[in-house]
Design a protein that fits this description.
The protein is an alpha/beta fold. Helix content is 49%, strand content 14%. The chain has 14 helices and twelve strands. The protein has helices spanning 12-35, 46-57, 69-76, 78-90, 99-108, 131-141, 162-172, 190-199, 217-223, 244-251, 264-267, 282-294, 296-313, 316-331, and strands at 4-5, 9-10, 41-44, 62-66, 93-96, 115-117, 149-153, 180-184, 206-210, 226-229, 256-259, 275-277. A six-stranded parallel β-sheet has the order 9-8-7-10-11-12, sandwiched between helices. Strands 3-4-5-6 form a four-stranded parallel β-sheet, sandwiched between helices. A two-stranded antiparallel sheet has the order 1-2. The two termini are 36 Å apart. The mean pLDDT is 93.
């Protein structure tokens, strides 16, 4: 993320340091693989992780997991694309967090028959509903329990779509004067998003918390009446594979409003576990948020159904099971007994 400017283009500094970083990472991976007597290498992000894994693997099988921006960089930059293609050629298996990402990887050279979509997992013991967490989150934000709160969490980058949430907040402000929209995160767009809120006349109701630690996020999500993930395809074509916050919101039992881009629609079901709206549509965002704010019983039911679905289908134990099956397949060894 630090190598990208607002997730739209690579920073020159990142391009300059890339050869040294890849060389150092490859040497480190080789040392660790030898000392641990590794039987396979699992690399995350095809660029640069998959490239380093391919160089360090030797005779070991290589598994590459894709997350989003790595594929975007490979699609947009010739040298990165060639490096990704070589890594895919070396990989015994490739996993992606969304079907869209899988398709894009195949276009870059991954073999479809050796690819699997594995969405992320979530720790449902940490991300949960609860009066204690709600009170903690409200206290951290300095908000009373009866203040309507809409929350969004993420880096301030174009593909997160926060400018559309600010537009939606301006539409909601006359109807909900006490409403607070909190955007938790930091990034290159901090100044421009704050300026947008000021120009729209909602600088008092759209609050920017700045950087928040991951330890703080469960309480913030539990404190929210509605959480929003307004992801978009940005102007350069970059898009989230599957934002972690989608699963964390749903595990928290907080009603979710999101766009159906990337892998979001494969996890969240419109009208049952979330409200899904078209991307780049502030009016649709505002309408979905208002509908949930106006119907507390609907909010509760949606949050409860979302948590049940997440606990059932998206635990880290389930993710680990799927990876263990892939490890056994590529190493031609029997799957370990639990």
């Amino acid at each position: 993320a630090a190598a990208l400017r607002a997730d739209v283009g690579l920073r020159l500094s990142a391009i300059a340091v890339a050869p040294l970083a890849v060389a150092a990472g490859t040497l480190c991976a080789r040392r660790v693989a030898r000392s641990a007597t590794a039987s396979l290498i699992h690399a995350h992000w095809v660029v640069p992780g998959g490239v380093m894994g391919a160089a360090a693997a030797g005779g070991r099988p290589l598994v590459i997991s894709l997350h989003g921006s790595d594929v975007f960089v490979a699609e947009r930059h010739g040298l990165a694309g060639r490096a990704a293609r070589a890594a895919f050629g070396r990989a015994a298996w490739v996993t992606a967090c969304s079907e869209d990402l899988r398709d894009r990887a195949v276009a870059l050279g991954a073999v479809r028959a050796r690819t699997t979509v594995i969405p992320y997992g979530v720790d449902s013991a940490r991300f949960r509903p609860g009066a204690d967490l709600r009170a903690e989150g409200r206290a951290a934000l300095g908000l009373a329990d009866d203040v309507p709160l809409v929350l969004a969490v993420g880096r301030l980058a174009r593909k997160k779509g926060f400018e559309y949430l600010i537009e939606a907040a301006a539409m909601l402000a006359p109807r909900y004067p006490a409403l607070r929209v909190v955007i938790a995160g930091a990034g290159d767009l901090d100044a421009s998003l704050r300026a947008q809120a000021a120009a729209a006349g909602v600088e008092a109701s759209v609050l920017f918390s700045g950087v928040v630690s991951h330890d703080q996020v469960p309480a913030l999500l539990a404190a929210a009446d509605v959480a929003v993930v307004p992801s978009v395809h940005d102007e350069a074509g970059n898009v989230d594979g599957l934002p972690n916050t989608v699963l964390e919101i749903m595990a928290s039992g907080t009603p979710l409003v999101a766009t159906s881009v990337g892998g979001i629609g494969a996890v969240a079901v419109d009208g049952r576990t979330a409200r899904l709206v078209p991307e780049r549509n502030a009016a649709a965002l505002a309408e979905a948020i208002a509908d949930l704010l106006d119907h507390p019983s609907q909010r509760r039911a949606m949050g409860e159904q979302a948590r049940v679905a997440i606990c059932r289908d998206y635990s880290w134990a389930r993710v680990a099971e799927q990876f263990t099956d892939i490890y056994a397949r590529v190493s031609d060894r029997p799957r370990p007994r639990p």
